[in-house]
Amino acid sequence: MRRMASWTGHFDRPVFEAFVKTVGIYPIGSLVQLKSRRLAVVVGSDTPSLLRPKVKVFFCLQTRRLCAEEFLDLSLPECEDRILQAEDPAAWNLTGLEAYWMPAESLS
Predict the structure, then answer these.
(1) Are 29 and 44 in contact (CB under 8 A)?
(2) Domain boundaries in the chain?
(3) So what's the pLDDT on residue 107?
(4) pTM for this structure?
(5) Beta carbons of 37 and 62 less than 8 angstroms apart
(6) How far apart are CA 53 and CA 11, in angstroms?
(7) Which of 97, 98, 107 is nearest to 59 (CA)?
(8) Looking at 8-22, 23-37, 47-61, 90-104, which range is the least confident one?
(9) Which secondary-structure segment (H or E) carries 107?
(10) Do 30 and 41 form a contact (C-beta atoms < 8 A)?
(11) φ/ψ of residue 40, rounded to 5
(12) Which has the minimum average pLDDT: 13-27, 32-46, 49-63, 75-89?
């Protein structure tokens, strides 16, 4: 999204803004790094802030191992975690991320 936003003149501004509001800055299925030094997959974008979606944490960067899965709604005032950046799953040698965000019946 950031790259698309930087392409001045390529998109009609109101249409692009509507697209971002629909898809979100971090689309469902995106891999993100959190302030807590963990990786998570975006599982929902139905929050008041496009920058603070719902995520499912599954990987600890410190230990470089899977950790206990945890759902976080980053938009809640009591949630102190936040997204630092989007990550490339290939850079972490991670596959099968759809299992974290896609309903089980869709995987079969």
Answers:
(1) no
(2) 2-93
(3) 46
(4) 0.79
(5) yes
(6) 25
(7) 97
(8) 8-22
(9) helix 104-107
(10) yes
(11) -145, 160
(12) 13-27
Which residue(s) pair with 54 in the sheet? 44, 73
Tens digit of pLDDT for each residue in 15-40?
777 776 666 688 899 999 999 999 99
Q: How many angstroms separate the most distant Cα atoms in the chain?
A: 44
Rounded Cα distance between 54 and 76, Å, is 10
What secondary structure does DSSP assign to the chain, as a single string?
Answer: -HHHHHSTTTS-HHHHHHHHHHH-SS-TT-EEEETTSEEEEEEE--SS-TTS-EEEEEEETTTTEEEEEEEEETTSTT----EEEE--GGGGT---THHHHS-HHHH-
Encoded amino acid at 94, one letter: L
The residue type found at 49 is S
Residue type (1 letter), 98: E
DSSP states along 9-27: TTS-HHHHHHHHHHH-SS-
Cα separation values, 83 from 9, 10, 71, 87, 108, Å = 28, 27, 14, 10, 31
Provide the token pair at 27: 């689309």
Asked whether the CA dihedral 64, 67, 72, 78 is positive or negative, the reply is negative
